[in-house]
Design goal:
Layout (H helix, E strand, L loop, with lengths): L2 E4 L17 E5 L2 E5 L10 E13 L6 E13 L5 E3 H22 L2
Antiparallel strand pairs: 1-2, 2-3, 4-5, 5-6
Length: 109
């Protein structure tokens, strides 16, 4: 099995810069893996972090207080400890998929 690892893929991020302007690219035969990298240190490894809380609020026209349980899923870079939200990760993955699909359709022309 032939394996090539490099960092030559350029994927611009036009909105807020949550991630670096490049991803790590790994090609194994017909499979391609694009990795999200941390914009601080270019590390590709993240751990999942959860926060748990209670949110209290008053009920309209009453002195009663109710609460909701709130949990938040975050991702932390294992090298520099920078925190990313689930929404940031999902948005970047969607952007990467669109860029990769565009590159395939451009190469077929």
């Amino acid at each position: 099995m032939h394996k090539v690892v490099g960092t030559g893929l350029f994927i611009p991020w036009h909105r807020e810069t949550f991630f670096a302007y490049s991803t790590r690219l790994e090609v194994i035969m017909d499979n391609i893996k694009d990795y999200i990298v941390c914009d601080n240190c270019k590390n590709k490894n993240f751990i999942r972090v959860y926060n748990f809380a209670l949110r209290f609020r008053k009920v309209n026209f009453s002195d009663d207080v109710i609460y909701d349980e709130v949990s938040e899923e975050l991702y932390q870079c294992t090298h520099c400890q920078k925190i990313f939200t689930k929404q940031q990760i999902d948005a970047r993955l969607k952007e990467m998929a669109n860029e990769r699909l565009r590159s395939f359709s451009d190469s077929e022309r």
